[in-house]
Amino acid sequence: RKEVEQDPGPFNVPEGATVAFNCTYSNSASQSFFWYRQDCRKEPKLLMSVYSSGNEDGRFTAQLNRASQYISLLIRDSKLSDSATYLCVVIVRSNDYKLSFGAGTTVTVRA
Amino acid sequence: DTEVTQTPKHLVMGMTNKKSLKCEQHMGHRAMYWYKQKAKKPPELMFVYSYEKLSINESVPSRFSPECPNSSLLNLHLHALQPEDSALYLCASSQASPAGGGRGHTEAFFGQGTRLTVV
């Protein structure tokens, strides 16, 4: 079983729509959780950290469910510029700083 | 300043060449990483340095040789590569807490990558 799994999509949504997707992790000792965004042929860029209480940054909302071992990302009022691959990243405390990546979820926002 | 700088941005090398990739950060981060990314795939971890010591080597072939001269610099020395090693090589850094203690890991910041082509 992979350490981190994501629905690859693609999610193809119209502008203004809401899109949400999850990421599951297998190791219950996972400690830190992040969403990164990666544009084609560019480096991953941090979108947001995911906290136990859930957190929001503008149109983006991240949730963590430790009991079911998943994190989620919700994008409201989608913009064309939100089109990207969203990577889920998990760090296991005992794994000496190793970031484990999901395969990424592709989102395409159409006009 | 949340910048990780990688050089060169592009590199074409022959299978008999020796080259080096360089990475620099001045955020005081004590964990630094090398990742390899192929098209339409997520980044794959190669090496992790924490406090200038190699802490993780993900069974990377010896034709890739990492080096951490100091807390701000990370190099990846390349020798006798194969065409299938062509990829985007990403460097990243993050704050690091000592293993088994501290408040945990903070987010990692990535450089723009070196796009390597082996011919």
User: For the report, how would you describe the main beta sheet of chain B?
Assistant: 7 strands, mixed
Q: Tell the overall outline of chain A.
A: globular
CA distance, first residue to last residue of chain A = 38 Å
The proportion of strand residues of chain B reads: over 45%
Q: What is the radius of gyration of chain A?
A: 14 Å
Structural class call of chain B reads: mainly beta
Rounded to the nearest angstrom, the radius of gyration of chain B is 14 Å
Q: What is the helical fraction of chain A, as a range of percent? A: under 10%
Largest binding interface between chains: A-B, 24 and 27 residues
Assign a percent range to the helix content of chain B. Answer: under 10%
The poorly predicted ranges of chain A are none
Note down, in words, how this protein is organized.
The complex is a heterodimer of chains A (111) and B (119). Helix content of chain A is 0%, strand content 56%. Chain A is globular. By secondary structure, chain A is mainly beta. In chain A, strands 2, 4, 5, 9, 10 and 11 form a six-stranded mixed beta sheet that branches. Chain A has a five-stranded antiparallel beta sheet with strand order 1-3-8-7-6, with no helix packed on it. With 119 residues, chain B is mainly β. In chain B, the strands form two sheets. In chain B, strands 2, 4, 5, 6, 9, 10 and 11 form a seven-stranded mixed beta sheet that branches. In chain B, a hairpin with a 2-residue loop joins strand 5 and strand 6. Classes of the chains: A mainly beta (111), B mainly beta (119). Chains A and B meet through strand 4, strand 5 and strand 9 of A and strand 5, strand 9 and strand 10 of B.
